[in-house]
Amino acid sequence: MICMFSSILGYAQTGSQEITTSQLVGKVWERVSPRSEHETVTMSFTQTAFTDSAYYTLLEKSSLRNLPYYVTDEQPTDTTFHHEYVGQERTGRYIVKFYPKANDFDYFTVVSLTDDELILFHKARDGQIPRFDSYIKYRRKI
């Protein structure tokens, strides 16, 4: 427990890291934390789409979502998704993804990106259930 708290505190003190769209494209990431023994979650990026997939071992089912996204250095507000940024080579500290069916969007703050590891921070939004901020750690698969 102390080790987990120290890690989270270390992430919080680190802040965020600037990345480019091309650093994401063509890579596949598997979530390592938080992790469920009954779920495997991966994500990948093309120039225009953020794809996340989950496999649920107990149900023997999978899900897949392809969502438009972009990278930006402008902290997202609750009202604006910049569709014109999708597909552009951009630099920034935020990955913003759009949910077309809900006509809504959400974002991650990039805490750290190396060749082997990606750490994102997700700030809970008003009305989100459960409502808590979280750090998500991924290990590179490809």
The main β sheet shows up as:
8 strands, antiparallel, barrel
Strand content: over 45%
**Helix and strand composition category:** mainly beta
Number of helices: 2
Chain-averaged pLDDT? 90
- What is the alpha-carbon Rg in Å? 15 Å
Q: Can you tell me the overall shape?
A: globular
Low-confidence stretches: 1-14
Biggest sheet, spatial arrangement of strands: 2-3-4-5-7-8-9-10
Distance separating the two termini? 31 Å
Order of helices and strands: HEHEEEEEEEEE
Query: How many E strands?
Result: 10
* Fraction of residues in helix: 10-25%
Keywords:
142 residues; mainly beta; two-stranded antiparallel sheet
Walk me through this protein's architecture:
With 142 residues, this protein is mainly beta. The protein is built from two helices and ten strands, in the order H-E-H-E-E-E-E-E-E-E-E-E. It has helices at 2-14, 21-24; strands spanning 19-20, 28-33, 39-45, 49-56, 61-72, 91-92, 94-99, 104-113, 117-122, 134-140. It has an eight-stranded antiparallel beta barrel. It has a two-stranded antiparallel sheet with strand order 1-6. A hairpin with a 3-residue loop joins strand 3 and strand 4. It starts with a helix and ends with a strand.
